[in-house]
Design a protein that fits this description.
By secondary structure, this protein is α/β, with parallel strands linked by helices. About 45% of the residues lie in helices and about 10% in strands. α5 links the parallel β5 and β6.
Length: about 300
């Protein structure tokens, strides 16, 4: 079995980081805070500027990252982006070193994680899927939850890095199980956000004050993360996307993508997901109606504007 466990657990050798978007940027900064030098790449050079100014090394391709670092984290939007970063013309697999630990924190199809793991293993390296939950706020504060799939013997080596960016690092099983856990979580999140938005909209139209209704929900059995931590109604809560015209946070496009992954997984496992399927359609319609770049909690605004219902 390939092992990277011989590497000193306390070593501060360079870590490669590919993908410096809304999530990747603060995650990389937390690695820096813990003293790890970074080898950085992003398809958009502007995303690398502040890291370069901070003295981190910026390179011109994922292959160059793999040449200079034997621990690499990827944080990319879609399955296509991840496959390109690994298997593309200038991908990680072109120059990956034997014994390297490759951690993908993107949310992608579990079957693609499994395929990539096989390709990585052929090169004498180790692949683990480690998608995250918690959003941009948790990424900034270093309180993400990582759901990790891969060879259990390598979990400690992965946890050394992931623990710098998250407060919960959970081993889920073989490669792909991290993605499975993430997809299930996000399907429930979408359903509960839609439910919270519908509830708040109904309550407001029945004459209830939104802050009062939220207070009642959060001391009652309807309480959920969407109501008590990430409320979708503008003016109810500070520091959430609904307080900032739904800017930042977790984009509607990404939620639609994750629900599509849930739909595919449900089809392949013959699992009924009635509400998951409806949630997928709602977020797809939102994308088509101009909400694609807004946070997924903008489903409340979408419902408010659909007066014809």
């Amino acid at each position: 079995m390939i092992s990277v466990c011989s590497r000193s657990m306390a070593s501060k050798t360079p870590v490669g980081f590919i993908g410096l978007g809304n999530m990747g940027n603060p995650m990389a900064k937390n690695l820096m805070k813990h003293g790890y030098p970074l080898i950085i790449y992003d398809v958009f050079p502007d995303a690398c500027k502040e890291f370069q100014e901070a003295g981190e090394q910026v390179v011109s391709s994922p292959a160059d990252v793999a040449e200079k670092a034997d621990r690499i984290i990827t944080m990319l939007p879609t399955s296509i982006n991840v496959v390109e970063a690994y298997s593309g013309a200038n991908g990680i697999l072109k120059k990956v070193k034997k014994g390297s630990l490759l951690i993908d924190s993107s949310t992608i199809d579990p079957s693609i994680s499994k395929e990539l793991a096989k390709e990585v293993e052929k090169m004498g390296a180790v692949f683990m899927d480690a998608p995250v939950s918690g959003g941009v706020g948790a990424a900034r504060s270093g309180n993400l939850t990582f759901m990790v799939g891969g060879v259990e013997d390598e979990f400690a080596a992965a946890k050394e890095l992931l623990g710098c960016m998250g407060s919960n690092v959970v081993y889920c099983g073989a490669v792909g199980t991290g993605q499975a856990a993430k997809i299930c979580n996000n399907m429930l999140l979408a359903i509960s956000m839609i439910g919270t938005a519908e509830t708040m909209n109904l309550g407001i139209r029945l004459g209830l004050d939104p802050k009062l209704l939220t207070k009642i929900l959060n001391m009652s059995s309807g309480r959920c993360w969407s109501s008590d931590t990430y409320n979708p109604v503008p003016g109810v809560m500070d520091g959430v996307p609904s307080a900032n015209n739904y800017q930042g946070g977790f984009g509607t496009t990404l939620m639609a993508k994750d629900l599509g992954l849930a739909q595919d997984s449900a089809t392949s496992t013959k699992s009924p997901i009635f509400l998951g399927s409806v949630a997928h359609q709602i977020y797809r319609v939102m994308c088509a109606k101009g909400y694609s770049k807004k946070d997924f909690s903008a489903v409340f605004q979408f419902l408010r504007e659909e007066e014809n219902f």
